[in-house]
Amino acid sequence: MVFGGVVPYIPQYRDIRRTQNAEGFSTYVCLVLLVANILRILFWFGRHFEAPLLWQSVVMILTMLLMLRLCTQVRVANELNMKRRSFAATDSKDEEVKVTSRRSFLA
Prior knowledge:
Blueprint: H1 9-19, H2 27-46, H3 51-96, H4 102-106
Helix pairs in contact: 1-3, 2-3
Subcellular location: Membrane
Main location: membrane
InterPro entries: PQ-loop_rpt (IPR006603), SLC66/Scramblase_ANY1 (IPR052241)
């Protein structure tokens, strides 16, 4: 029961890590699950409920933080690669520009 909510994220984590592509994963789902599990833990302080549900929230929060960390690392790495490619592309275009002489420019 404690690890039941985490099991579906294991293949997603492995797939994102293997392909280095996090486009299909929504970080908003992580946000909603983080808020829900934090609220569940805060509720526990006011009115105690079963310990496995408390541990499930703790495990789910850790899982969501790991997923967010992986997604941000992958997205940042992909954006840096795209910027490097565009920077390299602009460098090659700059080399193609030929400098005209000053006299032809004034004429």
